[in-house]
Amino acid sequence: MIELGGGAIHFSGPLTMVTVNEALRESTALFAEEGPWVLDFSGVGEVDSAAVSLLLEWARQSARSGRKLRISHLPENLQSLVKVYGVEDLLPAA
């Protein structure tokens, strides 16, 4: 589901209530790496509101650690949820 490569953390598969806890656990070690956090969502398909919560948690973690967070290839369905919940200003531009 998550792998590090090419200077980014790549996500694949669904990000839903069923999978976000595992994604959070898997990401913890990867976020310990040096440098900015580039999150690539090009491999993500199915999402629900839990994915928005996960994005917000990663934004909080990056703010606490003083590291820059960049989101790339955010799927349209997740972009829509971010807008519906009105949290687009809390996340770096995708």
From TrEMBL:
Domain STAS: 9-94
Species, as recorded: Sulfurimicrobium lacus
PROSITE patterns on file: STAS
InterPro entries in the record: MlaB-like_STAS, STAS_dom, STAS_dom_sf
Pfam families, per database record: STAS_2
Name the record gives this protein: STAS domain-containing protein
